[in-house]
Specification:
heterodimer; A: mainly alpha; Rna Polymerase Sigma Factor, Chain: A; Arc Repressor Mutant, subunit A; about 70% helix; globular; B: alpha+beta; 2 domains; 8-stranded antiparallel β-barrel; 4 helices; about 20% helix; about 45% strand
Chain lengths: ~190, ~450
């Protein structure tokens, strides 16, 4: 029996040591996912907690057929989406248009020197709905059709949000790399 | 742009892959306490199931053993109703009839009584060979024959030993009624009761955070009640087991939520609800499109129609009320054990047990000029709850069969009605049940 199977079995038997071991092993990665989906630290913490509670509650349903880490990630992302839907599904679609668009295209495509921490900070600065669409499309690999159902927007809005998110990200990445180079040169 | 887009996608996908951030301290403790609380009801359900099985097995065993004993006593004692005068024939080839007598299976009638007395009190039954076995005192007996020819006159009867006689004949010409076996003994083991109670309802918060404390401080209990029918079976002189069907209506008032009517014409969003209100028992979703809600200085309402988007005063909506009422109705199936502490005209019982509560209805409403104005319902409620009860019952016996009951009862719900972020609110209630019970 693999180690993860043993840990899961222990968790199902209510063994606190195994439960904590499972948490310690995966909490770091899953918290990064939570932060990626939330612009607010408290909300990210809530997503992590609720996500882990769901993971423990649904552990018996894990079939050991796919990646356990992927299964946990999906639960965490779904928890983040539930929070998002809860807070934002009632906003009218045209509310999105009030967000100011960047005034220029980025010209710097040299992304060297950007680490994961910088990328996370950049992604978290995105307006919520852009961030959701970008995460679901670029990171999780959902199609616009799927995103339109998940986020309750039209496919056109999903494409538009993705496009705007990319523009903002490119600009911010450009600014970050420029700033970093400047610091290094000085 | 597409290529640039794909590049930026890859940059983030690869850059964030396997990235880890140290979770906030205390997160694990909160998760662990939550999963512990959630798993507790499962353990309790198992314990309840085991207790129920044990009680059922004990009850069936007890009933079975009594049936065997009753069959034996029927064969030991018989009543010859065809005789010119009633005659009790007591075959003496099985000492179990003595046990039947000791257990008062031969009971008082208006003019006949048999009861065990001490051997030493017998004085005038000189023509009977006494045995060291227990003996009976027969009052108002006019004639008594032992064996074929031996007759004892007077109030006392000594039972001979089995080697000397095979049966005892008791002749009593005026005897009208005599109860000689279990099937005719008026022991009222079953009883049915109708009970009702006004109930005080509130909740205890565990693992609470600032938000849930804030929410709970704005909630007040509403008038709640519970009532129904119950059956109980007397297992022994002191213990009885009770079950039945009760209907409970619980509720609370949520202050600080202003409601307005006439919003239908302004609704321009899709979806099945316009407002969500956080409460300690879950989220209230509005199902009435005519209602508009605002909260006094808190963020407990989630909506697209925030203050900066829609002003109910400018739109001339009609104010309805400044609070919401939440109502939950449950069907309750109790399994209660009663222990009789005092068994007199006024009896006192100790009551304890578990109940399964099935959610049958939930609604949220407010009132406008005394009339109910529907708002919506509460989402995420547990459909089945387990509650524990503890109480003290007072029973006033009006007659042998009818009694008045008064039972102050505390009830604690073992699992919360629903779970809000970071907290688990366990409701509890206190009620004084009153009603009548009938024994049969």
């Amino acid at each position: 029996m693999s180690e993860i199977k043993k840990i899961i079995k222990g968790c199902l038997a209510g063994n606190r040591r195994d439960q904590e071991l499972l948490y310690r092993r995966h909490a770091g990665k899953l918290f990064a996912v939570c932060l990626q989906y939330s612009g607010n630290d408290d909300e990210a913490r809530d997503i992590l907690q609720e996500g882990f509670i769901k993971i423990f509650e649904n552990l018996e349903h894990f079939k050991h057929e796919g990646s356990f880490e992927g299964w946990m990630r999906r639960i965490t992302v779904n928890t983040a989406l539930e929070k998002f839907r809860c807070r934002h599904n009632l906003y009218r679609v045209d509310d999105i248009d009030t967000i100011k668009e960047p005034d220029a295209e980025p010209d710097n495509q040299d992304y060297a020197g950007l680490d994961a921490k910088d990328l996370l900070e950049i992604i978290r600065e995105l307006p919520t709905k852009y961030r959701m669409v970008f995460n679901l499309f670029a990171i999780e690999g959902y199609s616009h059709k799927e995103i339109s159902k998940i986020v309750n927007i039209s496919e056109g809005t999903s494409k538009s949000n993705l496009s705007r998110a990319r523009v903002i990200l490119q600009r911010r990445v450009g600014s970050y790399t420029g700033l970093k180079k400047k610091v290094v040169n000085e | 742009m597409n290529e640039k887009g794909a590049n930026i996608d890859l940059l983030f996908r690869n850059g964030l892959k396997d990235y880890e951030v140290l979770p906030p301290p205390g997160a694990w403790d909160r998760i662990h306490s939550a999963i512990k609380i959630k798993s507790r009801p499962i353990i309790l359900l198992r314990i309840a199931a085991v207790v129920t099985i044990l009680l059922t097995v004990s009850f069936l065993t007890y009933k079975w053993s009594r049936e065997i004993s009753s069959t034996t006593s029927v064969s030991a004692l018989s009543f010859n109703v065809g005789a010119p005068s009633p005659v009790i024939s007591v075959p003496f080839d099985d000492p179990q009839y003595l046990t039947a007598i000791r257990n008062n299976q031969v009971r008082n009638s208006s003019n006949f009584k048999i009861e065990p007395i001490n051997y030493g009190t017998i004085s005038d039954a000189t023509d009977v060979a006494f045995s060291p076995e227990p003996i009976m005192n027969i009052q108002e007996t006019k004639s008594l024959s032992i064996g074929n020819n031996t007759t004892v006159r007077g109030p006392l009867l000594a039972l001979p030993n089995r080697s000397q006689v095979n049966s005892i004949y008791i002749q009593y010409p005026d005897l009208q009624y005599l109860l000689v076996n279990n099937s005719t003994i008026p022991v009222n083991r079953w009883s049915i009761a109708a009970m009702a109670s006004p109930t005080y309802y509130s909740g205890i918060s565990s693992g609470s955070d600032q938000l849930s404390n804030k929410i709970m401080s704005s909630e007040q209990p509403l008038f709640s009640y519970s009532g129904g029918l119950s059956f109980s079976y007397k297992i022994s002189k002191r213990f009885s087991i009770q079950s039945g069907l009760y209907y409970s209506s619980l509720g609370q008032k949520v202050d600080g939520i202003n409601s307005y009517s006439g919003f239908t014409q302004f609704v321009n969003t899709k979806g099945d609800h316009n407002f969500e209100v956080l409460t300690s028992n879950g989220k209230v979703f509005t199902t009435n499109p005519d209602v508009f809600l605002t909260a006094n200085g808190s963020d407990r309402i989630l909506t697209a129609y925030t203050k900066d988007v829609f002003d109910p005063n400018k739109a001339s909506l009609q104010p309805v009320n400044s609070s919401l009422n939440q109502n939950f109705s449950y069907l309750e199936f109790p399994v209660i054990l009663r222990y009789k502490i005092v068994d007199k005209t006024i009896g006192i019982n100790l009551i304890g047990g578990l109940s399964y509560n099935l959610l049958v209805h939930n609604s949220v409403y407010t009132t406008l000029d005394g009339k109910i104005y529907p708002v919506g319902d509460t989402k995420g409620l547990n459909p089945l709850n387990l509650s524990s009860s503890l109480g003290m019952g007072m029973e006033y016996n009006i007659s042998g069969k009818l009694s008045l009951n008064l039972e102050p009862t505390f009830r604690y719900y073992l699992n919360p009605f629903s779970v809000t972020t970071g907290s688990f609110i366990h409701p509890y209630s206190f009620g004084i049940f009153s009603g009548v019970s009938y024994k049969f």
